[in-house]
């Protein structure tokens, strides 16, 4: 089979039809692998557990002092997430430039995935009041997660023709939520049965954290075996001492060149706003549930598991809606749904699990689809040969890697002591993102970078 022109331009040599499907399945399994980190570590267990560890280390005023800076123990986790993403920006951009320049997308993807998995397994040793160890491991794991996911996203333009990308991206997200949800089922059983197994609740949590790293490492084998190497955009044969300088020059050139595509930048700005809000809801949901709504750990895990299950269908459903109404309109509709969901979270009563489950179901319904369609839509707006670099910028606010939202969330709690105020403060990200996305003429933006636009947008 000869791949469509837009696929052939950015992919490795054209495989047979059956091989393309095999490659797609390998790509889906990358989401299956790393979603365990997002779901088990960032969304469920680490926030409340690291907050508890920081609280044990706090002074009489309830503050800890990383690097000598007074920080409320309750704000340490969101601040650490923000710090990890700020650092990952630099690493992602350099890794993306190196991948596009050398064609070693798969090699770098594997290296960062396994380094992140190792850091996640290391969370088993987080105990007592050693909050600095937890913060360091979170920073390392989240950086590696961000870089590996950005490099995986760069394969999307070569996996499907323009009209098929929404469906392929949606399936990837569905696989991710299925994988993350399956591990959560196992971890829920472990946590609920920890007494019968002779384990303390803290030991059970640490085992759950480590299991996400083991899962990530084990299933990363499949994309490593099935994804092809991609072509380089610059000669690889350079003196060793020029490699770093060449990558930096390539990166600077790409950043300068982005000014020629202002519509791509406008979409990216819209995505960075609204998805920062989405990611903050995901990463801080357990903290909000435990500290403000007074939900137990079992209820929190079950709620996040419900999000994972509903998000599978949500991603596929919104993908189908996009096929009829276009990705842009579908994303805009999902943002309205996010605003309604946040407002519901602000007024919902505490200590009533049924309402927490209703909130979880609402989040799951719009979660996967809004992210999957954003990823596929952005893939149309990238000039050929620069996928890894552009997706590195995109990944600044992708699953688990937002920084503005956690910073605002943490500051709101720091100033008010209320997680309800913190959660409602995120509305500004959805409002700004909606307004910016509304202004993007998608078809003109795709044509501006020299790509073929699908009939329905």
Write a concise synopsis of the structure shown.
With 457 residues, this protein is mainly α. 73% of the residues lie in helices and 1% in strands. It has a two-stranded antiparallel sheet.
Strand content: under 5%
Assembly form of the protein: single chain
Shape: globular
What is the share of helical residues?
A: over 70%
Strand tally, please?
Answer: 2
Strand order of the largest sheet: 1-2
Fold and architecture overview:
With 457 residues, this protein is mainly α. Helices cover 73% and strands 1% of the residues. It contains 18 helices and two strands. A two-stranded antiparallel sheet has the order 1-2. Strand 1 and strand 2 form a beta hairpin. Helix 2 runs antiparallel to helix 7 and helix 10 runs antiparallel to helix 13. The longest helix is centred in the N-terminal third of the chain and has 41 residues. It is globular, with a radius of gyration of 21 Å. It starts with a helix and ends in a 9-residue tail after the last helix. The N terminus is likely disordered.
């Amino acid at each position: 089979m000869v791949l469509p022109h837009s696929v052939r331009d950015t992919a490795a040599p054209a495989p047979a039809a059956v091989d393309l499907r095999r490659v797609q399945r390998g790509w889906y399994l990358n989401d299956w692998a790393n979603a365990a980190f997002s779901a088990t570590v960032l969304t469920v267990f680490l926030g409340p557990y690291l907050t508890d560890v920081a609280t044990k280390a706090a002074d009489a005023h309830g503050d800890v002092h990383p690097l000598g800076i007074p920080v409320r123990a309750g704000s340490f986790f969101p601040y650490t997430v923000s710090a990890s993403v700020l650092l990952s920006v630099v690493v992602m951009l350099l890794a993306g430039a190196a991948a596009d320049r050398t064609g070693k997308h798969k090699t770098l993807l594997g290296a960062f995935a396994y380094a992140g998995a190792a850091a996640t397994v290391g969370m088993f040793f987080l105990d007592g009041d050693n909050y600095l160890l937890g913060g360091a491991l979170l920073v390392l794991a989240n950086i590696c997660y961000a870089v590996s996911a950005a490099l995986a996203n760069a394969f999307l333009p070569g996996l499907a023709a323009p009209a098929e990308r929404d469906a392929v991206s949606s399936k990837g997200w569905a696989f991710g939520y299925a994988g993350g949800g399956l591990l959560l089922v196992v971890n829920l059983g472990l946590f609920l049965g920890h007494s019968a197994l002779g384990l303390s609740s803290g030991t059970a949590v640490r085992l759950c954290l480590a299991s996400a790293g083991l899962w990530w490492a084990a299933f990363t084998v499949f994309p490593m075996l099935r994804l092809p190497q991609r072509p380089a955009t610059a000669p690889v044969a350079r003196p060793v001492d020029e490699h770093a300088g060449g990558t930096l020059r390539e990166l600077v050139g790409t950043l300068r060149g982005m000014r020629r595509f202002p519509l791509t930048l406008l979409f990216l700005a819209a995505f960075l706003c609204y998805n920062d809000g989405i990611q903050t809801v995901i990463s801080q949901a357990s903290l909000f549930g435990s500290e403000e709504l007074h939900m137990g750990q079992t209820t929190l895990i079950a709620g996040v598991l419900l999000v994972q299950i509903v998000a599978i269908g949500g991603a596929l459903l919104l993908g189908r809606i996009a096929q009829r109404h276009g990705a842009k309109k579908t994303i805009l509709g999902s943002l309205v749904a996010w605003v309604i969901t946040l407002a519901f979270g602000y007024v919902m009563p505490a200590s009533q699990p049924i309402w927490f489950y209703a909130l979880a179901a609402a989040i799951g319904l719009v979660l996967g689809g809004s992210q999957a369609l954003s990823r596929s839509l952005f893939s149309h707006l990238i000039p050929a040969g620069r996928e890894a670099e552009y997706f590195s910028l995109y990944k600044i606010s992708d699953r688990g890697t937002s920084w503005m939202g956690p910073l605002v969330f943490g500051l709101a709690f720091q100033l008010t002591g209320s997680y309800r105020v913190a959660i409602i403060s995120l509305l500004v990200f959805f409002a700004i993102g909606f307004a910016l996305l509304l202004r993007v003429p998608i078809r003109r933006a795709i044509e501006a970078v020299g790509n073929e636009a699908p009939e329905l947008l």
